[in-house]
Amino acid sequence: MVNKSGFNSKEVCGYPLSIFFIVVNEFCERFSYYGMRAVLVLYFKYFLRWDDDLATSIYHTFVALCYLTPILGAIVADSWLGKFKTIIYLSIVYAIGQVAMAVSAIHDITDTDRDGTPNNMTFHVVLSMVGLFLIALGTGGIKPCVAAFGGDQFGDHQERQRRTFFSVFYLCINGGSLLSTIITPILRAQNCGIYSKQKCYSLAFGVPAALMVVALVVFIVGSGMYYKAKPEGNIMGDVCKCIGFAISNRYKHRSKQYPSREHWMDWAEDKYDKLLIAQIKMVLKVLFLYIPLPMFWTLFDQKGSRWTLQATTMDGNFGAIVIQPDQMQTVNPILILTLVPIMDSVIYPLIKKCGLNFTPLKRMTVGMFLAALAFVCAAVVQIEIDVSRKHLTYFNLTQFVNGMNKPVNVSTSEIFPFLIIIRATFFLQSGQLSCAFSRDFGFGSSYTFFIPSTLSLGSNCQESITGAEDIKPNSVHMALQVPQYFFITAGEVMFSVTGLEFSYSQAPSNMKAVLQAGWLLTVAIGNFIVLIVAEVAKLPKQWTEYVLFASLLLCVCIIFSIMAYFYTYIDPTEIEAKFRRNVGDDDDDKNDKQRKLEMEMMKRDLDRSDDEHYKGKQTKM
Ligand SMILES: CC(C)C[C@H](NC(=O)[C@@H](N)CC(C)C)C(=O)O
């Protein structure tokens, strides 16, 4: 197959062979990222011995940083190194970061007294922070480049294949993350060490590090097959200067005597290339459309926080298996793996058969609506939970009625709060008397125990002590969270998979990675909104907070649908080709009148709003 720039690539079933290396690379990279992330908080808490607050804030700062760094990687790729080299260099940085994390988790390195705990905690803290910084730089930096680089491999005539690629790309993300979030916690639970055996964080970080090396090797192996678009110089610098000039020129010509121009960017025409101006217009149009999007991620990312907390107040007993609250999150990638193929091969073609033009922006709007619906479901489940029980833990509510005529001291064994069925052992002490008894608790239940007056030295506490259930264990089953997971994931498929492809297809050739980074920036902003809204709103009931978020997203969804209605799909390649052709025509010394006419037509083309999008023509929402 001959690609856009005359590049000849090998094909398998109509797809460039190079794509195989890119999707495998993505699978391994996401395995590496999500695998490391799965055990990170526990590493902070139990290895570095940080308190919950510090562990949580450093964790969220790290995640936010991972979505802020894409802009750096995109600028480097589009302006300087090109996507291929940027991916290689930043993957090396990334792999070093992962190795640093694995090394930082080897307690033996500083365990000079061999008691199983590190003696120089500063070494472990510094090394892990350096590691996390490098990982954030690497994962964020390559993220917009890998997606855009994959898109680059397709010719202009392969729009359908390119769309399928973005779906498969998303499947790989979720396949990799699902596998790693299952595997790394198992690795962490192993015991390892030279002098003493401890929980094996080094292995839990080491395997993701190895997978990142595999990702890099796979990517390099495909090297000879890739189409590598050349960077066009300091494009971001030019963009900023051009926008700055347009604004200042517009300001200088603010008086009524100057005729107005169709678009404020047209004020840069006095100095800048018309092609660059057209490209900036394309990017600004899409970025403007992105303004409401962070709200989707605000809701989406609460799966890991609010929804997991909700699950802790539910019954996870599924008969043969007991599901832990944090394990419920794996429902998302599992559903992605099933819903993406269903959407692509059944739902979308069916909608098309019905004669409906389900354009990318319509899909994204429906995706937002589904996410709002997911939060309505979460609110209903929350009300159900609130009605079924009034107390979150049985700890404070477990009481003893002492029937003896002397005081009894009661202490209890460690209780694992995330287990659904908890076995607690109580130790009774009163003078010479000392005995113990154990009971199983359903999570969330509360008991009153009666210590009989007949209890004496040698009594069997296990048999003598009776209990009454004051508060029943969690009765609302975790399966009730499935509808909310279903809706949020269906929303994600419509919103995120489509948005990924939309960001690629609407970006000018020299700013593909930059627009991918803009897309990822909406994820970062969404995460900040969670903190702000939850802090400002401070609602007394959890279900009201869910309703608030659902309403906010619904409002945003309406605003977005209006904005989308006025959006005109473009084919950047076509527009760029027209402008380039025009530059060639200049050399033929065309008369001025003719040229002006052509430019007018091109401008109109850019803003026109008819025809359908997927034929490479322009269309509205
Ligand atoms: C832009 C990202 C938030 C998209 C993507 N995340 C997912 O696909 C999630 N369904 C993964 C799940 C394990 C949270 C990513 O690139 O990580």
TrEMBL record:
Entry's localization field: Membrane
Gene Ontology BP, a term: oligopeptide transport
Membrane topology reported for the UniProt record: Multi-pass membrane protein
Bilayer-spanning residue ranges: 12-34, 54-75, 87-109, 121-142, 163-183, 203-227, 282-300, 334-351, 363-383, 482-502, 514-534, 546-570
Superkingdom of the source species: Eukaryota
Transmembrane helix is among the record's keywords: yes
Gene Ontology cellular component annotations, sorted alphabetically: apical plasma membrane
Biased segments, Basic and acidic residues type: 600-615
Entry keyword set: Membrane, Peptide transport, Protein transport, Symport, Transmembrane, Transmembrane helix, Transport
Region (Disordered): 600-621
Family from the record: Belongs to the major facilitator superfamily. Proton-dependent oligopeptide transporter (POT/PTR) (TC 2.A.17) family.
Name of the protein: Solute carrier family 15 member 1
